[in-house]
Design goal:
The complex is a heterotrimer of chains A (384), B (427) and C (292).
Chain A lengths: L26 H19 L5 H27 L6 H21 L7 H31 L2 H21 L9 E2 L15 H25 L1 H11 L1 H6 L4 H27 L1 E2 L6 H14 L4 H25 L3 H7 L2 H17 L3 H7 L27
Antiparallel strand pairs in A: 1-2
Helix pairs in contact in A: 1-6, 2-6, 2-9, 2-10, 2-11, 3-4, 3-9, 4-9, 6-9, 7-9, 10-11, 10-13, 11-13
Chain B lengths: L10 H19 L16 E8 L6 H20 L7 E8 L4 H14 L4 E3 L4 H5 L2 H6 L4 E4 L15 E3 L4 H15 L5 E6 L2 H14 L4 E7 L7 H9 L4 E5 L2 H13 L5 E4 L6 H8 L4 H5 L3 E4 L8 H13 L7 H19 L6 H9 L23 E8 L2 E12 L2 E4 L16
Parallel strand pairs in B: 1-2, 1-3, 3-4, 4-5, 6-7, 6-8, 8-9, 9-10
Antiparallel strand pairs in B: 10-11, 11-12, 12-13
Helix pairs in contact in B: 2-12, 2-13, 6-7, 9-10
Chain C lengths: L1 H31 L6 H19 L2 H22 L9 H23 L16 E2 L2 E2 L3 H23 L1 H11 L1 H6 L4 H23 L12 H14 L4 H22 L4 H15 L14
Antiparallel strand pairs in C: 1-2
The chains are: A mainly alpha (384), B alpha/beta (427), C mainly alpha (292).
Amino acid sequence: MTTTTSTTPARPAARRPEPRARGRLTPTQRILLRAVLLTLLAVAATFVLDPYRNYQLAVVAATFCATAGLTLLVGLTGQLSLGHAVLMAAGGYGYALAANAAAGAGLDGDGPAGVARVVLGLGGALVASGAVGGLLGLAGARLRGPYLAGLTLAMVVALPALTTQVPALGGDQGLAVPFEGVPQALSRLIVVEQWHAWLAIAVAALAVTPLALLRSGRAGLRMRAVHGDETAARLAGVSPGRVKVGAFVASSLAAGLGGAVLCLVTQSIGPGRYDLAFSLLLVVAAVVGGLGSLGGAAAGAALVVLLPWLVDTVTAAVGVPADLEQRLSGNLAVLVFGALLIVVTLAWPGGLARAVARRPRPRPRPQPRGRTDAPATPPQPSER
Amino acid sequence: MSHPRPVTARPAAAATGAVAASAAACLALAGCSTPAAASPGISDDTVTVGTHQPLTGPAAAGYASISAATKAYFDYVNDHGGVHGRSIEYVVKDDGYNPANTQTVVRELVQEDKVFALLGGLGTPTHSSVLDYLDQNGVPDLFVASGSTLWDDPEGHPNTFGFNADYVVEGAALAQYAADQHAGQKLCVLGQDDDFGQEFLEGVELAVGKDGVAAHETYSTSNQDVTAQIGALQAAGCESVLLATVNGFTALAVGTAAKMGWSPRWLASSSGGDYPTLVDLLGEDVAPALLEGFVSANYLPFGPDGEWVELFRQINDEHNDGARFDGNTVYGMSLGYLFAEALARAGEDPTRESLVEAVESGDLEGNGILPLMFGPDDHSAFDGVGITAVTDGVQDYVGATYAVGGGKVTEVEPQPVPLRGEGVPTS
Amino acid sequence: MDRLVFLTATGLARGLVVALFALSLVIVWRAARLVNFAQAAVATVAVFAAFAVTGATGSFWAGLGAALLAGAALNAAVERGLMRRVPSGSPLPGMIVAIGLVMVLQSALGIAFGPRHRPMAAAFDERPLVVGGVPLLSPYDLFVLVVALVVVGLLAWLFNGTSLGLQLRASAAAPEVSRLLGVRVPRMVTLGWALSGAVAALAALLLVPTELGLNAHSADLLFVHAFTVAVLGGLDSPAGALVGGVAVGLLVSLVTGYLGAGVAPLAVLALLTLVLLVRPGGIFAVGEVRAA
């Protein structure tokens, strides 16, 4: 990762947004087309990867669901959630409970029964994460920055206790879920890891495409309006409370689907995976990718999944003393992530998304109060 | 990770770029996939086995030295010609005691490092998250380093075998010993708020009945303040306290009680009863006084005068840089010895099936103080433990040994396995 | 009954440490309108400094001094080096930078000192004084009590009774006007951060001897509890921090003693949620929540 910093931002009006040149497609059609293309591309990529990389790809796709939800929430409405790991966990538990109930009710074979089980599981994930997200959203609509961040933080810390106290959640070990093998028709062609990568990619597409539509549509405008100036938004007939709750729920549903996929791929769900460190990694992914940018969220997800592994591989290859290697392992990646978080926020506020696209800076928008040189979380260039 | 990209790129292109870049990065580091070969991890002169261990994170302090000891023992075996001419390579992966990492590193071990078997995977929440995966991939899952009863499930997980005496056995044996020593005393339990504490409590109640436990408190590993629990036990008038605690919380419990001027009799599970570790945690100045008479359970030959310890000390000096010698060292090396024995019995050209058969044959001796229980219908290693105590700063067996079976605790004679030859199994 | 008395006394002693830490959060909030999520990491670094100094000199008091200095210096450096460069206008970037700082500091401590817990002795006897057969507070708890009360008193005097305190409050509440009136606002903000770092370091130093030992994550739970307290009392209110601290300390102690250790985190979360939903600005909030 290069940390090239440009401390002198381009003047706001230095460049015009590029003229529309995409023919007759409406924005919605364009997003759907893009989603289909990206999904096909990702599926094609699974053929060049070995099983372990395919497993990693599935984890990246699942993480992407959560980071996409988070980046939308933080970037567009300015609500910082440190608890998206809990929303993923809610989705995972929802999936596990529903899929296990389905298996117990007779849907315990391969083929159509397997499909039904997965669909029911995903439904369970949506219900669970939607419920938790809705409650948090209601709280978030009343709370401002640090209070919401603190509440979500306390929630992450309380998750292990909750799973121990509620017997249905299986304590520290969590729950096991039915194994979803490769369908008969494909079993000669691909191994199970590749199949799981396909499922993960499909679910990620299902989770993220609605977010992209939401962002480019009226809902996205309303969110930016509320973030920009709540009073003005209210005067314009937008209800800030409703917009915030809606954004939180949408974000939670995406994160919940991510948790469900992770549960499916790893055949288990437990509180250990969804700790505070992981929750903070999701924030890192969203910020480093560029708040508000879905492409950035994808890059961020890949970064937080692959960098720790890369750092360990490099330290092992360099051959540092065993004692030091032990202390570097795990810690060094966190150090890099923390530094990235600081550098990106201070010097490079668009994140990867802006660095890649070198898009023009948005026009400054009126700030609610206080002196300001650069908007903290610049909204995406509009998709007019 | 830099992305050369045209200036006019739009979000779609950015996202495409991200996907393509990560795909390219993966491609550069690995080949493409086709179904696996027949017998992974075995070559003419090596056997590769892997494990997942907490080398970082909060649990590392208590357990990171185990895999180093196992590795040192394998180095020793390899220096003595290996097993059937093959040297044993032990791939240790760090999971930080986080099940998410366990799932990743175990897949890496199986798919990238192509290990022959998994050996001594550590921890209940961590290892239980990969049980099904290992089963579906037919990977022998030997000697899990945890006292949970989950590993003893020949029907559900035919390739998985435990190593520790389970928590029920330990709880029952310690409670029985306490009751035998001081009849009519008030017996209390402090346990971790997970399966460790629950199964241990089951064992205690097996020995002394539900009414035999005067007070039961729990702690959570996330909160290092146990004053409230210790205070409650003291207020209940406990005379002996049975501990289902990891080493760190054993030290915390003993230390907190001492600060409150209270010194009941302590009886700790083998997972939290290692004297050198506790001394390190409590501080060398105060520990010897606090831990005099401290009772624990064990099933491995760690008595300071034994021939096994003599061998292990020598291996520790020669192959482990003379690291501190403690219960973890004996544990790690005993684990390695048992694996070497299983491998030796799996034949000249071992397969995954023959390895599992060798363990199930019931012929393995190991080096414990009681016979191993392994058989077609039993995947637990030990059904009993010996009682240890600290006398004048030395922790050793006191002679009392208990076995648990058929819902009751019986006192038995220890049957230690003598050391043969140089401690390298040959057949 | 004995049990209730004991648990109450313990909860009170722990609660005061939490209150002290919460107070440090209130000070930063008052100075910079920001919740310093890195406060626990900064405090832990300071305790490591104290540990080293006490180890070298053998004096607890030298270590205490080192912790106060290190906490103040580190927080001042954080403010000068990082927080000052954070774009204002939204509380978001400040929080994110603080979270990045937590990750950097804790992983650096982990790399430098490894995962093991270093036992740390308390400055005073920790055996409780037994009153009427019931173990109550230990001399160490009394020391904590006195320190906490003295610090609260000093801060109250500083903020309300001195010209420096007035300048501190003024520059936080109305930076522009204060500047016009000749207050050196940036200096006041740095001072507020330093003060808060010292108080946080003190709280962490008082906590660690009651725990397993010193480790990079020693103050994590303290921060969560203290944040809860600061929110309960209102981020603006020192008195609220004190009352809230004792309340959370008692809650954790009583719930752990009567319902089990596993229920305590849930009880804290429930309390936090309840207060936030009923009074979004905290119990002691006056008027509308002030969002920076």
